[in-house]
Amino acid sequence: MSTPLSNTMTQFIVPGVVGLVFLVLLAGLYTMMRGDRANLSQTLMRWRVGLQFVAIVLIMVAVYLKRGV
User: Fold this and answer.
1) First to last CA, the chain
2) How confident is the model at residue 5, as a pLDDT?
3) Residues 54 and 13 sit within 8 Å (Cβ to Cβ)
4) Which of 6, 8, 44, 51 would give a disulfide with 28, using CB separation of 3.0 to 4.6 Å?
5) What would the pLDDT profile of 18-44 be if each residue is shown by its tens digit?
6) How many degrees, rounded to 5, is the angle at CA 26 between CA 24 and CA 58?
7) What is the pTM for the complete model shown?
8) How far apart are CA 44 and CA 67, in angstroms?
9) How far from the centroid of its chain's Cα atoms is residue 7's Cα?
10) CB within 8 Å of 69: residues ≥ 6 apart
11) How far apart, in whole angstroms, are the C-alpha atoms of residue 61 and residue 57?
12) Which residues, 6 or more positions from 59, have their beta carbon under 8 angstroms from its beta carbon?
């Protein structure tokens, strides 16, 4: 049995966070390929790792709520 929160998470929140991870990844790769601001590239990649953690946690919460356990 799914809850309204799990539906909202699977429809909006999880895809939004995954999209944000993708955008930060692209920005970090672009900055790294330009090669002029190494510190910014490292900062963006650290943000990506943190956002990936958040995305995984949200996905696990959404799965938990969908199962209705």
Assistant:
1) 9
2) 67
3) no
4) 44
5) 999 999 999 999 999 998 888 998 999
6) 40
7) 0.79
8) 34
9) 18
10) none
11) 6
12) 14
